[in-house]
């Protein structure tokens, strides 16, 4: 009788788990980008067939990457949140703090607009637990705090402002402006917020 024990399933083969092929990763990225554009442009349900067509792939490819609408929405939301929350350091490297904050606010406004076309799916997914609830406000507030701190050090932004207050103020502006489809009003209100965040003249 052989004394060799059977190799446990999934071990002992010397093979690493397969990584996605480059073309599969490109297809996934194209689908996410097409979905981001589609959700930002629509305030209703976005047909998945149209997203696949814009990405240059078939609907079967979309479903291989994202078996449900919720999975696609979650991927788009995560990509948008990563972009806006992680953009503060790069903006501060390229621009003075006050200009960086103004540019970041525009990016945040675009993020809120993108959620318009997937709001119902997000709310239903969060309520049911199918979609993980992200710490969105915490990540946004961290970005705000980073820029405010840099601006306070440079003397171009106030040092006595709570970052979370700025987050709440901006969210209120963007939700109302998005609902009214009033992008011109968004810009004016951002300018008012910037005025409030600049130091007042002494005297």
TrEMBL record:
HTH tetR-type domain span: 25-84
Organism (species): Streptomyces minutiscleroticus
PANTHER family in the record: HTH-TYPE TRANSCRIPTIONAL REGULATOR BETI, HTH-TYPE TRANSCRIPTIONAL REGULATOR RUTR
GO molecular function: DNA-binding transcription factor activity; transcription cis-regulatory region binding
Pfam families, alphabetized: TetR_C_43, TetR_N
PROSITE patterns, per database record: HTH_TETR_2
Signal peptide positions on this chain: none
Origin superkingdom: Bacteria
DNA-binding region(s), chain positions: 47-66
Region (Disordered): 1-23
Alphabetically ordered keywords of this record: DNA-binding, Transcription, Transcription regulation
The keyword Transcription regulation appears for this protein: yes
Name this protein carries in UniProt: TetR family transcriptional regulator
């Amino acid at each position: 009788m052989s004394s060799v024990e059977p190799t446990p399933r999934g071990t002992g083969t010397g093979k690493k788990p397969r990584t996605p092929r480059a073309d599969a990763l490109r297809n996934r990225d194209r689908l996410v980008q097409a979905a981001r554009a589609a959700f930002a442009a629509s305030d209703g349900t976005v047909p998945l067939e149209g997203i696949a067509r814009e990405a240059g792939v078939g609907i079967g490819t979309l479903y291989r990457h994202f078996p449900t609408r919720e999975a696609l929405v979650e991927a788009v939301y995560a990509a948008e949140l990563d972009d806006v929350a992680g953009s503060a350091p790069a903006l501060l490297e390229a621009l003075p703090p006050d200009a960086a904050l103004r540019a970041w606010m525009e990016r945040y406004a675009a993020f809120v607009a993108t959620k318009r076309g997937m709001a119902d799916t997000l709310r239903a997914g969060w309520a049911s637990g199918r979609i993980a609830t992200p710490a969105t406000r915490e990540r946004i507030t961290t970005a705000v705090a980073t820029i405010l701190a840099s601006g306070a050090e440079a003397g171009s932004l106030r040092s006595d402002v709570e970052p979370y207050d700025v987050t709440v103020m901006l969210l209120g502006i963007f939700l109302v402006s998005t609902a009214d489809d009033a992008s011109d009003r968004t810009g004016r209100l951002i300018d008012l917020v910037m005025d409030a965040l600049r130091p007042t003249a002494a005297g």
